[in-house]
Amino acid sequence: MAHLSRFVAWLIFWTLFSNLAQAQEENPKDKKSPSPLEWLESRMESYQTDIWQADTSQSHVILIPMGFGKSDPKLRIDWNALEGEMIDSIVVVYTDYPKGKDLSALNRKRLSAILAHDESLATQEFITWRSAAQTEGKTAADFRKRFHGLAVYVRKKSPSGSPILSDSELNSPLLVDKLIDMRYVSKDSTFFKVMKRNKEWDNILVVNDWTGSMYPYGVQVLVWHALQSEKSSQNILQYVFFNDGNLTPDKKKVAGKVGGIYFSNKGNFESAKDAISKTIMSGNGGDIQENDLEAVLAGLEKCPECEQVVLVADSYAPVRDLVLLDQIKAYNKPLRIVLCGAEANGISPDYLKIASETGGSLHFIESDIITLAPFQNGETFELADCTYVYQNGSFLLTGCKEGTPLLKLYKEK
Fold first, then answer.
1. Is the model more confident about 8 or about 295?
2. Residue 166 is inside which H or E element, if any?
3. Is-above-0.70 flag for pTM?
4. Cα 91 vs. chain centroid, distance in angstroms?
5. Cβ 170 vs Cβ 179: under 8 Å
6. What domains appear along the chain, each with residue ranges and CATH number?
7. Which residue, 283, 29, 268, 64, is CA-closest to 154?
8. Which of 102, 303, 310, 397 is least surrounded, with the fewest CB atoms within 10 Å of its CB?
């Protein structure tokens, strides 16, 4: 009996001890923080390529060769010489040889070589880390010919400390989140200037074209929001982002039912960023037409209390769904159309019709047309290097200054 009592006591003790040990193991406070190298690896983007080549179209690249199967740098970077520049991305380049072998330990050593200079590089949000596996070759001799090591992409800083970016880079969805986080403003600051001139707008519904060519302007919208103080008189109640149908083939797009429309949780900034991510990942347009009014109508249904409707639109793109205009007019809310790229590309006549029939306005980088006076049938006028005529309730493009992209588009229609 004594043996049984001792056994039961031992069992109880062991159970309690095991539970306590498990609880201690699961205590978040006892978990070690990831090392800089572990943090870096968790953010690494990996891809394969036949033969890796440095892309110098947007950035200056510094190559740190390490040799086939090696992790010791063959040269040293003079980091002091990079003052006035900032690191944009770092790529660890290797070869997939032997085929399918796990080379993570070797690449970890290669990454450690650059972290030895500055461990904080691993956690700097604006640096993109990638690994590139080269796959072309059959023998060790083939792969020894390839570059192995690190490629450090750097670029000049702007006066604000942000990198100077080209227009083509601003069309990349991969940069959108980075640009928002660093409060980037492109050289065409249309949305910023329009909002500054129209401070009376409040309780706003923003409907934003987020097809490929419009990424730079969409970034402006969210950066503007991020920079507003809580006491700002301009309050965005709802964001709507649209990509003209996700990946629907152009031939299958039906006006009013195209889709590719995403909403934020009211005017919440983080929710808007998430909605943008979904919009980008789901598609980036297709043909030149866009489903602007379908998105506006969806926004009005989502936010009937919104007082101002601001459509951030590609000035060049025809509106796919003018058939929905009467439904929008029933809400009796003027559309404020921010026309992006108008100075370079011209203005689709569809926006003139929308603004005119909703009692809305047109807004450009340097000016606003607050009201469109009633037009007489056959009346002509000029706007943004193009000539239009009002005829039977619609605006028709009759000509543009030579070289305006809009002219070629409407000649082809």
1. 295
2. none
3. no
4. 21
5. yes
6. 36-156 (3.30.1330), 167-371 (3.40.50)
7. 64
8. 102
